[in-house]
Amino acid sequence: MGQINCSEDMLYEKTVSEKDIFDGRVFKVKVRQIETPEGKPSSRELVFHNGGACILPIDDDQNVYLVKQFRSPFERVILEAPAGKLDDGEDPLVCASREITEETGFKASSIEYLGDMISTPGYCSEIIYMYLATGLTYEGGNPDASEFLSTVKMPLKEALAMAEMGQIEDAKTLIIIYKAARRFGL
After folding, report:
1. Closest to 156 in 3D by CA, of 178, 134, 138, 123
2. pLDDT tens-digit readout, 16-38
3. Domain tally for the chain?
């Protein structure tokens, strides 16, 4: 068994080789042959993703706007904060601003950065940048052609309760709800 208390330098793996497996529209898959810190060979199956931006619109009455969307890996509808993938080299704020309008129809006069999250560090490079949108003005939505969703309005307190009861399962949505609740003193 490895050491429990060791310096960070002793944790690094050495890449020996890397093989491209898949190069898709949304992500790339590679298999990396590595040498463990103790010198043993192993491999890592890795997904490389441009990342995404997630934005939580909240109105003056502390209502949040989430979206319901069918998610194919789970074969069911999931309740989520509006979000989208970053185009190559895209500024996350630009992505978040686009997604709030496309998915909810709102524009925000103020967008506050709430931090970012690494979604699944064991095998995926995806980072999701999180934003809080206030000063909302409805201008009409414009989802992508293949995107079908429904906007849901609810008090932030209700979204927080749903998160705590396991009724919201999406990680980025859970984190952004908890961050927003803390920001608003809930």
Report:
1. 178
2. 999 999 999 999 999 999 999 99
3. 2
